[in-house]
Amino acid sequence: MRLLSRSFRVIFSNSSGVLIHPRTALFFFLIFFFAVNLLADTLTQRRPSIGLVLSGGGAKGFAHIGALKVFEEAGLQFDYVGGTSMGSIVGGLYAMGYHPDSMVSLVSRQNWNEVMNDRLPRKYIPTEEKYSAERYVVTLPFRKRKVTLRQGLVTGQRIDMLLTRLTSPFYEVKEFNKLPIPFVCIGTDLLTGENVILNKGSLNKAIRASMSIPSYFDPVEIDERILIDGGVINNYPVEEVMEMGAEIIVGVDVQSGLHKQEELNSLVKILDQVTAFYRIDAYKTGVEQTDIFIKPVLRPYEVMSFNDYDSIISRGETAARLYFDQLKNLADSLNRIEYREKRRLNTQPLDSVYVGLVEYRGLKNVSRSFVNGVLKIQPGTWVHLDEFEDNIKYAYGSGFFEHLNYSLQPFDEGEGIRLIVDAKEASSGLLGAGINYNSDYKASVLINATFKNVLFKGSKVFVDLNLGESPRLSGLYLVDRGFSPGFGLRATTFRLKINQYSQGKVTEVYNIVQSKADAFFHINYKNSLQFRTGAEFEYIKIQSDIDPEQTVDYTPYLNIFAEWKLDTYDKTYFPEKGIKMHTKLKYISTINEAWANNIFSNALVASVRYSHNFYVARNHVFRAGFDAGVTFRDDPPPPQHWFVLGGQTTTNYFDGIFSFTGLRFVEEMGLNTVNLKLLWQYQIYPKFYVIGQWDLGLINDSVERLFDSKDIISGFGVTFGYDSFIGPVELSLMGSNQSNGVSNYINIGFWF
User: Fold this and answer.
1) Which of 151, 312, 516, 741, CA to CA, is 20 to 30 A from 209?
2) How big is the CA angle at 167 (ends 209 and 394), to the nearest 5 degrees?
3) What residues are paired with 481 via a beta bridge?
4) To the nearest 10°, the Cα dihedral for 386, 392, 393, 394?
5) How confident is the model at residue 691, as a pLDDT?
6) How far apart are the C-alpha atoms of 184 and 189, rounded to whole Å?
7) Kind and range of the H or E element at 63?
8) CA-to-CA distance for 618 and 613, rounded, in angstroms?
9) Residue 521: which pLDDT band, with cuts at 50, 70 and 90?
């Protein structure tokens, strides 16, 4: 003790030689010791890592974007991001450096009805398919000579292209932990039911797999595993983000939970309910491990409420803002431990790339020259991705592909990138069916078989069987060479019953049987303008229904024709913009010297149909158009080549039949006609329309007397329409100066 006392006296003596008491010295020594240790702890304290977890939930996942706005405002700097399904899309974009405001802009620019249903605008559909594609209620593919079912309602072509473009700035990244924020998403193995962690490989493909809603989207193959939506097993991947290194978890959950009985009113909800049973335990564990748990109130929005993105984003922001103080305190606390500069969120999709090499994969029956001719890409050139993706839509719209996308890869052998065009050819055939009833042709059922690449690559075969009161069988063989000239063969036979009128009364009923075949060459430009020229053989038989003995067999005819078609309508039914025009010139001649030559002569017949839609204001469309036809002859041509006014059906068996408001089907006939058509369309509610129509027309056998004012026909009417999944449902009430009272027209289903 003495030695210790002496030591303290030596150590703690001041400069004046005055000694500090040992107890006082010990007190100061302890304070000094603890201060040094406290300072050391402060200097060596490690900033804890923070992870963001975003759940799946379909369209409700747009709420994540609203939450991200609040996180950015609070100053949170995340170290890891994980997500499932829609959460993988938003999380992946955030991990790449997209700003929430940029995400809002990207979302608002999409037509979600088209994207989620793999629909292409009509301008990408070949001219022939414009008139044949939108006729079916159901379609089934042929595979290996068997009718099969689809893996999903849609292949996911449009969403694949969107994800490819959005992830394009990081096409070289194959390890997701090398993104600006390390990222992980979740898939489900369809064969084993296992939870699959997706943290490497193709970023867009991983996100696409994570959001493959079972039975809605086709599954995705990655590393020989068939993957579907990760939300089936793990819709809130907290554990996976913690395994990456996250110690603090901020989570946003947009799931609905289990639906009540009265809410199970759609296929999507039933599937969501079934999968919810498998993920509920993992979800509960994830919630318990979440430090800040945000759950937006999203009723009444559903998994497929993609058009309500603005409201859903707002709901996500509102929910996150309730936790703003807590989020801000967390951000400030982390910055006090270790300050970080705020991350710059300025990522945008690539605008263009320099292509060093073009590589095609998956082409078997479709020629490379066809694809390359449509895509218009050459090595050693700059490719603007907007134009390139536009051309991909044209190629996909040809119908030869079930899936057609591209990927960007590093090109080690030279300058630029390796552009890979990845194709999955469509099935060899398609079986389709549709139904229709209209007041002109009555009830009918359509059965169609479509085959591709028969005899020639790039060929298509369409066979239609129309069963009903006006049966028809037709076949078309078409060689489609993209924007290069092609050729085709067509044959049709049908039976049709029409009335003959006099002073508004039926005076005769005729049964018509006609068979015809034609061969032609054609050229298409951008799927909007088509020129076709060829020769047509026809034979017709007409029998009186009142007096069956009065049967007329007209001699066969050989007709030379040329026609131009322009179609830029945005929709086949209830269009809002675009032009449609059909001009046809045909020379009609008898094949042999028969008695019909004494009645009918060779004739040149010209016709034109034109209509133009003007989008006037929100939900208001004005349509103006005209029909005209003129016959150059010494004697009249056979009756099948006369012009006819009446009815409302726009798809007719004879190309000389012009629809006319207020007139019954085939009510007025003549060799020359001109008609003005005015229409106002108003969308009163999504898919519900009311349409006002007014037609003015003239028809006569003589051009000189055609414009006699006393022969003007005026028809007017109103149509109530609904755009249903089986096609338009329409009820028209009409009148004209040719008859007293009100007539009606009913159409149910697609026209064919």
Assistant:
1) 312
2) 85
3) 484
4) 110
5) 97
6) 16
7) helix 63-74
8) 14
9) very high
Residue 325 CB coordination number (10 Å): 10
Q: What is the mean pLDDT of residues 121-131?
A: 84
What are the two backbone dihedrals, phi and then psi, of residue 738, each rounded to the nearest 5 degrees?
Answer: -95, -10
Residue 216: pLDDT band with limits 50, 70, 90: confident
Instruction: Report pLDDT for 18.
Output: 40
Phi and psi, residue 202, nearest 5° = -85, 120
Distance from C-alpha of 14 to C-alpha of 482, rounded to nearest angstrom: 100
Q: Which residue has the tokens 């962690």?
A: 197
Q: How many other β-carbons are positioned within 10 Å of the β-carbon of residue 284?
A: 11
Q: Which residue has the tokens 């024709």?
A: 561
Q: Which two tokens stand for residue 351?
A: 């605008």
pLDDT in tens, 554-580: 678 889 999 999 999 999 999 999 999
SS3 513: strand
For residue 66, give the 3-state DSSP assignment. Answer: helix
Identity of the amino acid at 245: G
> Which residues, including other chains, have CB under 8 Å from residue 329's CB and lie 6 or more apart?
none
Q: Is 592 exposed, middle or buried (CB count within 10 Å of its CB: 0-12, 13-18, 19+)?
A: exposed
pLDDT at residue 645 is higher than 60? yes
**CA distance between the termini of the chain:** 113
- Collapsing DSSP to helix, strand or coil, 262 comes out as helix
Spatial contact of 313 and 321, defined as CB atoms under 8 Å apart: no
Q: How far is the C-alpha of 390 from the C-alpha of 402, rounded, in Å?
A: 17
Cα gap 160→403, rounded to integer Å: 9
Cβ within 8 Å of residue 479, ≥6 positions away: 456, 458, 459, 460, 486, 487, 488
- Angle 235-240-245 (CA atoms, 0-180°, nearest 5)? 145
Give the residue from 270, 96, 223 showing the smallest Cα distance to 169: 96
Q: What span, in angstroms and rounded, lies between the C-alpha atoms of 671 and 623?
A: 26
Tokens 């002859």 belong to 633
Q: How many CB atoms lie within 10 A of CB 86?
A: 28
Task: Identify which of 638, 643, 633 has the alpha carbon closest to the alpha carbon of residue 668.
Answer: 643
pTM value is 0.81
**What is the C-alpha separation between 445 and 469, in angstroms, rounded?**
10
Q: How confident is the model at residue 13 (pLDDT cuts 50, 70, 90)?
A: very low
Strands 429-438 and 739-748: antiparallel
Phi/psi at 29 (5° precision): -65, -45
Sort 602 into a burial class: Cβ within 10 Å, 0-12 / 13-18 / 19+: middle
Q: For residue 240, is pLDDT > 80?
A: yes
Q: Which residues pair with residue 579 across a beta bridge?
A: 612
Burial label for 73, CB within 10 Å (0-12, 13-18, 19+), is middle
Please give the pLDDT value at position 11: 34
**Closest CA relative to residue 54, chosen from 79, 85, 87:** 87
315 vs 302: CA distance, rounded Å: 13
Taking the CA atoms of residue 718, residue 724, residue 728 and residue 733 in that order, the dihedral angle to the nearest 10 degrees is -20
Measured distance CA(230)–CA(217) in Å, rounded:
13
Helices 203-210 and 86-96, interaxial angle, to 10°? 150
Cα dihedral angle (453, 457, 458, 460), rounded to 10 degrees? -30
Whole-angstrom CA distances from 576 to 390, 582, 720, 726 are 22, 19, 16, 20
Predicted confidence band of residue 592 (pLDDT cuts 50, 70, 90): low
The mean per-residue pLDDT over the stretch 585-606 comes to 74
The residue-averaged pLDDT of 417-422 equals 94
How far, in Å, CA of 326 to CA of 320, rounded?
A: 10
Encode pLDDT of 342-374 as tens digits. 889 999 999 999 999 999 999 988 888 888 888
CB 428 within 8 A of CB 442: no
Alpha carbon distance 207, 94 (integer Å): 13
